[in-house]
Structure formats: C-alpha cells, structure tokens
Amino acid sequence: MLPRSGRQLRLAAHGYEANIASIGATLRTLTIDGRDLVVPFGADEVRPGYRGATLAPWPNRIVDGRYRFEGEELQLPLTEPERSHALHGLLAWAEFEDRLVLDDRVVLAAVILPQTGYPFRVEVEVEYRLDTDGLHQTVTAHNVGADAAPWGTGPHPYLVAGPSGRVDDWTLTLPASEVLTVTPDRLSPVAVEPVTEHPEWDFRTPRPIADVFIDHAFTELSRADGVAEVRLTAADGQGVGMAWDERCPWVQVHTADTPARQETHRIGLAVEPMTCPPDAFNSGVDLVTLAPGATHAASWRIFGI
C-alpha cells in the first residue's frame, strides 16, 4: 500500500542519506552518519504542514490571495485561512512523477495546470543530488503555456543542529543586513529595514537564538564567491548549514513556534532560500516573469557541520 506521503525515494552517498517523498517533492529525512540534519517525519504520515516541501510557483504568502498580472486581476484560493492568504504555492500536495532514479540522484516532475488564480501552465522539475558537499536541490521551471507566467520558488526544510535540544539551545549565523518587517497578526509585509534597527534579528555575528521569535524574510546577504551561507550549531560544535547563490536573494527564517503543540514547538529552524520575497506577486520585487518557452532554475544545498 502506498504510504501517505507518497512514493519513497532513498539516496545514500558520502555518509549522507536522504529520503524523498513524491507528494510535494518533499525532503522527508536527511542524515549524516545517522545524525538528523532536518526534522524528519514518517513515510506513512501526512506531511506536517509544509515540512520539507518544494514551494512553487511562489514561496511564502500572497496577501489576500489577490494580485494583478499583465493587466488582469487574479484571485487565488486562500490556503492560509487563519490569515486569509494564499500560502506556499500550488504544488505542496501534488504528486510528482519520477524522471530519474539513481542511488545518489533523483529527478521528479509535475505540471502546474491552469486554474483559478493561476491560469498558466508551468512544468516543474525537482532534482535532489548527494555528493561530498551535502544534499543539493535544484528546482527548474519551464513555461509550457502560451502566456507569460509569474514565478518564484524555494524549499521549506526545518534544520536541526544536534540530536537533542531545541531552537533556543542553538547558535545561528545569518549573514543578512536587512529584514522585511511584517504585521504581527497576519505576517503581511510592511517594510525592508536594516537589522541594526531590530537587533533581536541581527545574527551576522553568531549567537544563540535563545527565546527570540523569528518568522521573517531577510535580504542583503553577505556572500563569499557569490554564495550565502546560514549555519546552525549546537554546543558541541556539530550542526547543519545551508548555502545558495544569487538566484535566491532572500531567505525566510522561522523558529517554528507552536506553543499549543509542544511536540513540534521550536524543534527545528525553518531556513528557506527564496527567489523572491513574500507577496512578490504584488510588489514585483525579484519576481520572475517566465515568457512562453522560457526556463528558470534555482538551487541550494544542505550540509553537515
């Protein structure tokens, strides 16, 4: 019988092991030498929220699910009803088909069909690949429709620094000098501001997260050879890192606060490189417009420390 999270694809190489679930092209588990690098979930579980899902054709939120594109007013279903937003795209619960399955590499694909609020046809290919540098994920969009389409993407892993402890116990390095402030009730974007004006979110110098709440997008990332890198470490120096290039000028970071559900409360740190910020379908900031026949690719990497 097919597990609730879909077909299971196992990758193993160089001490890393990953399990990919076909629903949402989801990263279900990732370990190095048996140590978790992301918060896992069971193959026969319905995926908890967006844990490990591939986000497309937008990451994060579209405020009120409403936007204008090419002169047309469009309304998406509200998939975050408690805040009345359209959340994390259209493929998180889609079944992806296999394109390639190897011991250290898989390629999955799905097509976004024209629908209410997104009348475009985009083929999405997701590659996961293991090498000595960790787990690489690449998301490639191909506009197979007749009209230009708005596009954005990103992943949704919850990183784990050590086998014990929670977010409060770990040290974060986040090389971002600007943060997108949001409304406290709906998390709707307000303004991009220097982190110096919000020192609680300034992690350019590594420091423990402690009890800080974070659910914000960051930008103006310091890079080495074009690559930005976030690190999360435990007291013993072990941890996990995530790296990406300029195709993702934004990163969403979330401390996974669920005080009403202690089993998930602050058990992992969501780190989500993004090609565009929240509500980019309205602001236009870093929004990709895919012409008919055009492609766009973005990638990131998770590695053990």
From TrEMBL:
GO terms for molecular function: aldose 1-epimerase activity; carbohydrate binding. Keywords: Isomerase. Its EC number is 5.1.3.3. One of its GO terms (biological process) is glucose metabolic process. It is an enzyme of class 5 (isomerase). InterPro entries: Aldose_1/G6P_1-epimerase, Gal_mutarotase_sf_dom, GH-type_carb-bd, YihR-like. It comes from Microbacterium oxydans. CDD domains: Aldose_epim_Ec_YihR (cd09022). It holds the Pfam family Aldose_epim. It comes from the Bacteria. This is Aldose 1-epimerase. Gene3D superfamilies: 2.70.98.10.
